Amino acid sequence: MLKAMTMTLVGGIFLITAVCSLAADKGGPNGKTLFENNCGKCHNLDRATSKKKTKDEWQATVLRMKQKGAAINDDDAKLIADYLSETYKK
What we know:
Layout: H1 2-24, H2 31-38, H3 45-49, H4 55-67, H5 74-87
Helix pairs in contact: 2-5, 4-5
């Protein structure tokens, strides 16, 4: 009985920790993290960060990279383009 209660308590603590961690992460990855983790697989990030583009230009660039095989979904592409257009804008 004590073992079952201990396991339940440990499981509850694990669950609470996981939920708090997700809440602190604000629901998922951000554009900067996605940019660094995905674009950095094929490019030196200085290549992109040395550019200054409009939001439309960044969206076109990210879409082009996605079409060339970047392993990102549409939501990730939007977050990356939004991050780049805010951080590296004309």
